[in-house]
C-alpha cells in the first residue's frame, strides 16, 4: 500500500472530493456503503423504467379511472400463478401501479 493518498476519479466534482478528503475513515466507509446502495437503487429504477417502456400493452380502454393518468398503460402481472391487469405509469422517478382486475374474470 502506498503512503500517497489515492487519486480521485477525474469526473468526480471538486466539491465532493474536498468533502471526502475532510471526512473521517468511519464516515468514508458509511459514504461508500450508501453510494453502493444508491447506485444499485438507481440501476434498478432504470431497469424498471425500461421494463415498463417495453411492456406489452394488452388493452387500452378509453374510460380510465379518475385517479389514473391518461399516459397509463395496462400490464399483466402474475402473482401466485394468477394473472392480473394493472395500470402503470411514471410519477417522477418511480413507477406507480394500480390494480385493475383479473385477466380471467372468473378468478
TrEMBL record:
Positions of region (Disordered): 41-68
InterPro entries, per database record: DUF6788
Tree of life domain: Archaea
Domain DUF6788: 54-106
Record field: compositional bias (Basic and acidic residues): 41-63
Name this polypeptide is given: DUF6788 domain-containing protein
Organism expressing this protein natively: Halobacterium hubeiense
